[in-house]
Amino acid sequence: xxxxxxxxxxxxxxxxxxxxxxxxxxxxxxxxxxxxxxxxxxxxxxxxxxxxxxxxxxxxxxxxxxxxxxxxxxxxxxxxxxxxxxxxxxxxxxxxxxxxxxxxxxxxxxxxxxxxxxxxxxxxxxxxxxxxxxxxxxxxxxxxxxxxxxxxxxxxxxxxxxxxxxxxxxxxxxxxxxxxxxxxxxxxxxxxxxxxxxxxxxxxxxxxxxxxxxxxxxxxxxxxxxxxxxxxxxxxxxxxxxxxxxxxxxxxxxxxxxxxxxxxxxxxxxxxxxxxxxxxxxxxxxxxxxxxxxxxxxxxxxxxxxxxxxxxxxxxxxxxxxxxxxxxxxxxxxxxxxxxxxxxxxxxxxxxxxxxxxxxxxxxxxxxxxxxxxxxxxxxxxxxxxxxxxxxxxxxxxxxxx
Length: 402
Description:
The protein is α+β, with helices and mostly antiparallel strands. It is 33% helix and 22% strand. The protein contains twelve helices and 16 strands. The strands form four sheets. Strands 1, 2, 3, 4, 5, 6, 7, 14, 15 and 16 form a ten-stranded mixed beta sheet that branches. Strands 8-13 form a two-stranded antiparallel sheet. A two-stranded antiparallel sheet has the order 9-10. Helix 2 (124-137) crosses helix 12 and helix 9 crosses helix 11 (308-320). The longest helix is centred in the middle third of the chain and has 27 residues, at 235-261.
């Protein structure tokens, strides 16, 4: 099974409690339709185009690069911009003004439409059975691997290095470790900086405009002030880097909870560069009821799970990572912090449906079908696909497309 063969075959539409729109207001509200760009890519382009700082742009969530996505932005200015913008890979459509910005608190969820391709005919019944299991028993509400940033490429976590009192290592990971998705020019800069780390004067002329240039300019004048240099990273990027490690820790706790809670379960396992996802197929009614109500908080300095089993696992994972809750207090970190939110342990998609199977015109002899579902905020439709694929592993190993 394959997904994202083309960006327009993975469609995401944001659902919001939109603020009341009017003909004037402090915030201009736009509908953003894009493909082959991340939300941050679009914000960077628009910031240059409109000559406004990126802090003037607000949104409810980040959307993937390899997809056709619809979401909403608010932009402030003096006056706020009002014209629509159409470029090759995105359209920004002005829909009105509001007195409040678009933020995550307005987000209701996301609707997904995903084309599953390259399906062997023999797998139809197993896919349909797996969809019934997902609808009835849910799946663990893991953070999917696109959340893990540099760790997806085997480079480790920026925030882990901060917590281990290594701000220089964190900066080197952020600035000088290329990823597979970086454009060629960015990869070349990062490789150069990696091999000339500390020679800020030599690296600065090659630095792309933006946060990287700001950080290296600071380091040129303060060559070893690495904690202060970390605070030159824009707050939204710093929050993403911190959340990546918190998400990884949450997943690791969830796996250990499953192993302790279901010791005899033959799990389906999906391996990825930053770990694994463990999937059950069914749950007894009592355990389903228990886990359906359970919440597991993200790790920070003060938020502890109230459930005794969850607390034991929390302590085991921190011990394994050689961390304590107190380590998550970083008073020198000015632009972001480790914040905890309770996260539902299980995920139940709404309106989970599969269209009839049809011949796949790109892969003769195989089938295709559209998967439709609606998910709450901060949940991942790609996780549904991986759950489907794990049920097929014995017959057909998964591709890296998902």
